[in-house]
Design goal:
The complex is a heterodimer.
Chain A lengths: L1 H13 L2 H6 L2 H14 L8 E5 L9 E7 L6 E2 L4 E7 L2 E6 L4 E6 L6 E3 L3 E7 L24 E4 L2 E4 L2 H9 L18 H10 L22 H12 L21 H13 L4 E9 L1 H16 L7 H10 L2 H7 L12 E3 L1 E2 L4 E2 L2 E2 L7 H17 L4 H4 L4 E4 L19 E5 L3 E6 L5 E14 L5 H16 L1 H7 L2
Parallel strand pairs in A: 12-16, 16-17
Antiparallel strand pairs in A: 1-8, 2-4, 2-7, 3-6, 4-5, 6-8, 9-10, 11-19, 12-15, 13-14, 17-19, 18-19
Chain B lengths: L1 H7 L20 E7 L4 H14 L5 E7 L4 E4 L5 H4 L2 H6 L3 E4 L7 E3 L3 E9 L5 H15 L5 E3 L5 E3 L3 E4 L1 E5 L3 E9 L4 H7 L7 E3 L12 H4 L5 H16 L5 E4 L10 H9 L1 H4 L6 E11 L2 E12 L2 E8 L7 H11 L6 H12 L6 H17 L1
Parallel strand pairs in B: 1-2, 1-13, 3-4
Antiparallel strand pairs in B: 2-6, 3-5, 6-11, 7-8, 8-9, 10-11, 12-14, 14-15, 15-16
Helix pairs in contact in B: 2-9, 5-8, 11-12, 12-13
Classes of the chains: A alpha+beta, B alpha+beta.
């Protein structure tokens, strides 16, 4: 014993002073002794070869399939290092040490051998090391008391660094909720706990153990229910720190959008907005909706807006002759759709020959394809005009940006119930929607836009007019 | 949510089953659980959850589950190489990547899945498969079934009725296998055939095998009976009650964090992005105005994204500026038909408005997208 003490004293001298003063010296001596006994010659800054441990079933070699770390990365004990595969079994190799990765002995698809070095890790001596045996669920031995603590009959894992942090702040690990893998207590958990000390009681861990020790068997069935009642399910733990700024490259679809929008801004836009009284149209749609449903089609307001847009076309037609692309007779009205990737605009083809019902059918088809991510190139090209029903998400007035090579775009706000005066001067309930047009001022002037908008508005406010004029 | 899962599990009518409330109070030493869901992602998430959160030292687990039509690829496989993605999308068959190794399988309600959870030390695949064979023989003694060295179960010495895969973590491990009861063999063979040519990759390839349903051997067999028989054998071997606990993979109070796991399994980054690096070298045969063009395409795809792309077009077929725009935009974008479609159609907006140009562009892009 004397000899051991002498050894530990002499090695303490070599450790940098700042680490020594943080440690409770008695604890240091105790655990350090044990470490010296078990792990030979591991001191600060030493590079250890982490060998590939036994996979089981007599397997001697595996293929390295993925690295989770690279040279220079810091790892903590239990962090995943790599994924290897052997004969239909995929194995996650986790680190036994805290430290910095200094060397990867294999590249992807190389064959790695059990018992041979996998990575070299530079151990940070202040952080300590796990025993050389594989970390398994055995009852804690005395020297591991600092590393593992029994909480409510379950083992709680915490790396020596986390344990030290808890000690420094006089926190009992048993009171801290572990959110790491296997309920491991992470540094963030300690800091969260500190932050909450003055605030409300920390809610019990949402990760209830499903298999409690027998003595707790009665208590546990009740506990999850209680937890459900008490907490509004805080499954994701609150973020204690502000995130770091991240720079992400703009790729693929986003790049294309950048190009389109930059081109769009070269167009001199002017805006024109108006208010449409949709009371009569709302009524009409209510009547037609069940009929459409019988035919298996969902009828929204969009088919009306689209068909009427076409009807109002004559106003703008003579000006469209100035634009090459609009010489064709097909009016393909684009409908802006919000998807996971962002904005896509499939169009309904040849609106001029479609009935409102036909348009509704086509919209349904495009919507289901759009949400499944299966729209084809023909659905997404050839649009001559776009309508954006942003009102379904929210908003009243907007300033939409024209999608080249089109010459105008309309954004429809939400339908609101507002008080308005009728022809008799009485205040009535009206269903009001705002529309915001943007047009290319090189081709369209304000008066033309106003006349177009008025015509569009008149059809929608008096649906009976549609019967007279719509082809 | 409960009603939905009840609808899904109308086939669970056995008297021995009990609702989840008793999940943690029965069985010492081992536990048999069965999923009420047929959603492949939810069920795979349950496997992840048990692997990450349960203490298997005290209790081993047998998990029984079935999925509505889905193709499940192994951890390190290439979906483009393993199945007909176009057909999958057309037929609305889900694609999932599991965390265990091994090859590609087709799941439908006629196929049952068994997962044996143990500690790392007690990981023993052969024992598990022998258990299954024993259960089958107890049910139908005349069945000629045996376990091979490759951890397959063969019927009549030639037809594969079960495939195996495993996942080993730091302290726990699981071994899961399929069992073909009454799966749709026609759909199985058509979706597991990839039309892809010219794909070079180090991804784990699947080993195709002749398959047969147990139902074909003995029409009186049902998935229910097989599940029961296996559960019974497991119960006997682990000296526990023959008692199956139902669990709902959407129950966040029982399985905290499960919805995050389910979501992660559905992300593009996991399903496609985890594909090991591969390269494509193929030839597009495009018919344009009475002539057939042979266009060589070479692409390198890493993490599911196009790292490098080269299209060998006849000179001036597309204006050079436009061609370089296309290549620049494709580089870094996902090797995905949806992403590419939106990308190329958006790019088309800033092209000169020329019908000829548009039709060439559309032709080329449609062919490129067909590769994905």
């Amino acid at each position: 014993v004397c000899i051991h003490r002498v050894r530990s004293c002499s090695s303490i001298r070599f450790i940098k002073s700042k680490y020594v003063c943080v440690f409770d010296k008695s604890a240091l001596k105790f655990s350090h002794q044990q470490r010296l006994l078990r792990t030979s010659a591991v001191s600060c800054g030493q590079i250890v070869q982490f060998k590939l441990s036994d996979i089981g079933e007599g397997i001697t070699e595996v293929t390295v399939k993925e690295w989770y770390i690279k040279e220079g990365d810091s790892v903590s004990q239990f962090d995943s290092i790599c994924e290897v595969q052997s004969d239909k079994a995929s194995v996650t190799i986790t680190s036994r040490y805290d430290g910095v990765i200094r060397k990867l002995h294999y590249s992807i698809d190389d064959i790695a051998f059990v018992g041979k070095p996998l990575v070299d890790i530079e151990i940070d001596a202040s952080k300590g090391v796990a025993s050389e045996e594989d970390v398994v669920e055995t009852p804690p031995m005395s020297h591991e008391e600092h590393t593992h603590q029994e909480i409510k009959g379950h083992k709680t894992l915490a790396t020596p660094a986390v344990r030290r942090l808890a000690m420094e702040n006089n926190i009992k690990l048993s009171e801290v909720v572990g959110t790491g893998k296997d309920n491991r207590i992470l540094k963030e958990d300690i800091l969260n706990y500190l932050a909450k000390q003055t605030g409300a009681i920390l809610p019990p861990s949402p990760k209830a153990e499903i298999v409690p020790p027998q003595r707790k068997a009665e208590a546990v069935p009740a506990a999850p229910k209680d937890k459900a009642r008490k907490i509004p399910v805080p499954i994701s733990r609150p973020i204690a720190f502000a995130g770091k700024d991240k720079t992400e490259p703009v790729t693929g679809f986003q790049k294309a959008m950048v190009k389109t929008m930059s081109a769009a801004l070269k167009i001199p836009h002017f805006g024109y907005s108006d208010e449409i009284d949709l009371t009569q149209l709302v009524q009409l749609r209510e009547e037609l909706k069940p009929l459409a449903e019988i035919r298996g089609v969902k009828l929204s307001f969009m088919p009306f807006f689209i068909k009427v847009r076409h009807a109002a076309e004559p106003c703008v037609e003579y000006l469209q002759r100035f634009c090459q692309n609009l010489l064709n007779a097909s009016h393909n009205i684009g409908v802006a759709m919000d998807t996971e990737q962002g904005l896509i605009v499939p169009n309904v083809k040849n609106v001029q020959v479609c009935s409102v019902f036909d348009i509704a059918v086509e919209l349904n088809r495009l919507q289901s394809l759009g949400s499944a991510g299966q729209l084809g190139t023909s659905d997404l090209t050839g649009g001559t005009f776009t309508l954006s029903n942003i009102g379904t998400i929210g908003g009243t007035y907007a300033k939409p940006v024209i999608l080249p090579p089109e010459v105008a775009i309309g954004a429809l706000g939400k339908i609101q119930v507002l008080p308005r005066f009728n022809s008799k001067g009485e205040v009535v309930k009206a269903q009001i929607m705002n529309v915001s047009w943007s047009a290319d001022h090189r081709i369209i002037d304000g008066a033309t836009m106003a006349r177009f908008s008025n015509l569009w508005k008149s059809y929608l406010e008096n649906p009976a007019l549609m019967l007279l004029d719509l082809k | 949510m409960v009603l939905q899962s009840l609808k899904n599990c109308l086939w669970l009518s056995c008297v021995l089953r009990t609702p989840k409330a008793c999940f943690w109070s029965t069985a010492i030493g081992a536990l048999i659980i069965q999923s009420v869901s047929n959603d492949v992602y939810q069920n795979l998430a349950v496997e992840d959850w048990i692997h990450d959160h349960m203490d298997l030292e005290k209790q081993q687990v047998l998990f029984l589950w079935r999925n509505s039509p889905a193709v499940v690829i192994g951890r390190h496989q290439n979906p483009w190489q393993e199945c007909n993605l176009r057909l999958l999308r057309q037929k609305n068959i889900k694609l999932a990547r599991r965390r265990s190794g091994g090859g590609t399988v087709y799941h439908d309600l006629g196929n049952i899945n068994l997962t044996f959870f143990t500690t790392r030390k007690k990981y023993e695949r052969m024992e598990n498969l022998k258990l299954v064979v024993k259960a089958l023989k107890a049910l139908r003694p005349q069945l000629d079934v045996h376990v091979t060295d490759r951890y397959d179960i063969l019927l009549d010495r030639q037809y594969k009725i079960s495939g195996t895969a495993a996942k080993l973590g730091r302290a726990s491990a699981y071994h899961h296998c399929t069992l073909l009861c009454n799966a749709d063999k026609f759909v199985l063979s058509s979706v597991l055939k990839s039309p892809f040519k010219g794909l070079k990759s180090n991804a784990t390839p699947s080993v195709p095998a002749l398959v047969k349903n147990l139902f074909e051997e003995d029409p009186s067999l049902t998935s229910e009976m097989l599940l029961d028989a296996i559960a019974k054998e497991y119960a006997v071997q682990h000296q526990i009650d023959h008692h199956i606990t139902l669990i709902n993979p959407t129950d966040e109070t029982l399985l905290p964090g499960i919805s995050n796991k389910t979501k992660e399994l559905q992300t593009w980054e996991w399903v496609y992005g985890k594909t090991p690096k591969f390269s494509i070298s193929t030839c597009l045969n495009m018919t344009y105005k009475d002539s057939v063009l042979d266009v060589k395409v070479n692409m390198d795809v890493k993490h599911g994204r196009i790292e490098a792309c080269n299209i060998d077009l006849p000179e001036q077929w597309l204006p050079p500026g436009l061609y370089s725009e296309l290549v620049k935009s494709l580089t870094g974008s996902k090797f995905c038909p949806n992403e590419t479609t939106t990308l190329v159609t958006t790019l088309l907006r800033v092209c000169p408005q020329d019908d000829e140009l548009h039709s060439r562009w559309s032709l080329l892009c449609e062919n490129m997208i067909r590769l994905m």
